């Protein structure tokens, strides 16, 4: 009623015919209308802010863990907010294909905002977590001009985000949560080797794949210039990969396919200068695979001219130069670094939760609740999944498969909790095997470490069919289930696009 009276007075100030009698009459009429609605048991809420009837669930991250929870959770029972520095999900197994043009970039991403307005999404970083007050301190990840100071107010509130006057100037905001899922993932591990961050490319994001694709084509266009000597061409067209895990091996395979198809056709005078070298400190590549498959992959790469330099240690990196302990100075045109995972800065900043002494991953119980350091007990409102977390006494690999299964478990848990029921079933990981592409329509498939089912292994064309069918079925949206095979078919018929833009 107060809102109506104030609006009537505003109208009266604009239109003199709107007298006090009109105000009184209309106000009484609306009061009677409200009384009639209450009599029929149909009250209406005229508040401009949404009711806080649903508990607020905040998801940090939009990777394999966070995005799968976002996709499957019952949004009618939870008030969901997503905090992520990117507004998309990376389908990481396809990034190597995108980096050489086998697939286009949009085929390997899924938009977070597909689920808005049911879900509130902020493209931002979470800098710190206050577990006792249940408050997240966040910083926008968008390149916007500084926000203006809130006039005549100590704070403002927008969609549950409290923006204080002091924090507005620094573009930070605080966000309250009832339940929290930490799924921020991890960064690329550099082992503090000097010069890596400045001179190497990583392959964890679609933007990395775009940068690598641009650099590969730049190397060939630069080497094609008439003022470049043959010695300079050899340096420019030396592609180095550090890390012999699945990511490094698959990128080497995809790059080999590019060099021996489109590059050989469109740069016939340069193809003979191109070389690929794969470095690793381990004695073999694909260390998590069966030893027979490791030998198969090594022989395959050696036959194709890919140099495998295992038990090699990189000491430092400079612009266009890789300094290896066993080799000395190694010139390169492109260096891709893929040597494991480093903790996310948010995880490093957390001191209230038990962490693994080596990886700094958050320790959780088998219900994926974080273990608080002061009490030694799990926090019933905070969960951690993906590369940022590790179950106590249950070492699991930091892979997309583990993060995906934890996310499926969390989705089921929260859908049960949303019905005010208990969910105490512990998480169990079911190993589905490992896949890696080796180039030329050949792959390896390892099921020797699975707990149930046939413990088999495959290598060759059949494993390649399994590799492609697995990644095709795992693509999330109908759009990408159409785009991925379509691009595979188009590039098989017409070849990869070598345009640089």
TrEMBL record:
External alternative NADH-ubiquinone oxidoreductase-like C-terminal domain: from which residue to which, for each copy? 433-497
- Classification via InterPro entries: FAD/NAD-bd_sf, FAD/NAD-binding_dom, NDH-2, NDH2-like_C
Q: FAD/NAD(P)-binding domain: from which residue to which, for each copy?
A: 56-407
Keyword annotations for this protein, in alphabetical order, are: FAD, Flavoprotein, NAD, Oxidoreductase
Q: Which family does it belong to?
A: Belongs to the NADH dehydrogenase family.
Q: Which PANTHER family match?
A: NADH DEHYDROGENASE (PTHR43706), NADH DEHYDROGENASE (EUROFUNG) (PTHR43706:SF17)
Quote the protein name from its UniProt record: FAD/NAD(P)-binding domain-containing protein
Task: Provide the organism lineage as a comma list.
Answer: Eukaryota, Fungi, Dikarya, Basidiomycota, Agaricomycotina
